[in-house]
Amino acid sequence: MKKLTALSLAAAMMLSLTACGNSGSGNAGTTDANTSNADTSAATNTDAAADTTAAPADTSADTEGKVYVIATDTTFAPFEFENENGEMVGIDLDLLAAIAEDQGFEYELQVVGFSAAVTAMETGEADGVIAGMSITEAREELYDFSEPYYDSGVGMAVAADSDIASYEDLAGLQVAAKIGTEGCTFAESIADEYGFTITQFEDSATMYQDVLSGTSAACFDDYPVLGYEISRGTALALPLDMERGSSYGFATLKGENPELVEMFNAGLANLKASGKYDEILNTYIATE
Q1: For 15-29, how does the pLDDT look when each residue is reduced to its tens digit (9 = 90+)?
Q2: 16 and 122 within one domain
Q3: How many Å apart are CA 273 and CA 278, to the nearest integer?
Q4: What is the mean pLDDT of residues 83-96?
Q5: Do 202 and 74 fall into the same domain?
Q6: What's the CA gap between 128 and 1, in Å, rounded?
Q7: Are 172 and 194 in contact, with CB atoms under 8 Å apart?
Q8: What is the distance, to the nearest Å, from the Cα of residue 241 to the centroid of all Cα atoms in its chain?
Q9: What is the CATH number of the domain that holds 14?
Q10: pLDDT digits over 23-52, tens only?
Q11: Which residue did the predictor score with more confidence, 118 or 19?
Q12: Which residues pair with 178 in a beta bridge?
């Protein structure tokens, strides 16, 4: 299998014509299954998990010595993003590291961009994608998804000083959306009804800047992603409640690497039972 490298980040930003996906690679070469982010390395509650922990999937014949290539997005905070130290971190990456440790498999993380990650999976250059990828019926025809690991929805963000307070206020204006995302799909579904046009972007940072500069009147993205961006000081606001619930899943190409999906599901169940899952989420999303 041809392996993408983190250094090919810019070159790998290609369009995907099928569905959204993300790919990421904070570490060059093989990521050891015992590696995880320091901020989420607290010990698990082994007493609570003792009766509910699932044994690693019996896939030794298929996985022995194998290093899976997992693609992710470049910027989809709080699920994957680069921190102030230049390290790729986030909910998706912490979950993947913890699940790999729990199930005993190794992987190489590749950061190539949202649409490029899906393309890499479809062409066999990546074994799977974890990038806040929404599970939809259309995508389930192309990909095998894990059990949902996060429930989300779509939000509309505007500049903090904007007067826009409803979809009706977007009439005759331009909005921004990220290519292949649930936010883009939702914006397209209401564009004719409310009379706005859509400009699509490859990455979230450029999309947000388009709104902050006043070129686009609003942007549509996953609600927790927008909320995280606002919490870190970006001058955006969420004038409306979250729209339409969706769930994120880990994806592989249909019929390929079923053992990887099986291990992801078993590891996810163990993380939830031990409390590690909540620990990871609480690191990036504030709870009351």
Answers
A1: 333 333 333 322 223
A2: yes
A3: 10
A4: 95
A5: no
A6: 13
A7: no
A8: 21
A9: 3.40.190.10
A10: 332 222 333 333 333 333 333 333 333 344
A11: 118
A12: 201
Of the chain, the end-to-end C-alpha distance in Å amounts to 45
Residue 263: which domain range?
6-149+249-284
Helix (H, G, I), strand (E, B) or coil at 45: coil
Q: How far is CA 5 from the centre of its chain?
A: 19
Q: Which residue has the tokens 């010990």?
A: 43
Residue 1 covered by a domain: no
What SS3 class is residue 204? helix
Residue 70 Cα distances to 103, 111, 122, 251, angstroms: 15, 9, 12, 10
**What span, in angstroms and rounded, lies between the C-alpha atoms of 4 and 29?**
10
Partners of 219 in the beta sheet?
A: 157, 176
Q: What is the pLDDT of residues 224-264, one digit of tens each?
A: 888 888 888 899 999 998 887 779 999 999 999 999 999 99
Task: Give the per-residue SS3 of 46-107.
Answer: HHHHCCCCCCCCCCHHHHCCCEEEEEECCCECCCEEECCCCCEECHHHHHHHHHHHHHCCEE
Burial 26-44 (b: 16+ CB within 10 A, else e): bbeeebebeebbeebeeeb
Residue identified by tokens 């729209």 is 243
Q: Which of 68, 75, 181 shows the shortest CA–CA distance to 126?
A: 68
- What single string gives the DSSP state of each residue in 154-189? EEEEEETT----SGGGGTT-EEEEETTSHHHHHHHH
Q: Is the dihedral of CA 186, 189, 190, 191 positive or negative?
A: positive
| CA 70 – CA 4 distance, rounded (Å) | 10
Whether the Cβ atoms of residue 114 and residue 21 lie closer than 8 Å to each other = yes
Q: Verify that 98 and 161 share a domain, yes or no.
A: no
Residue type, 109: L
pLDDT at 22: 36
Q: By the 8 A CB rule, do 195 and 172 touch? A: yes
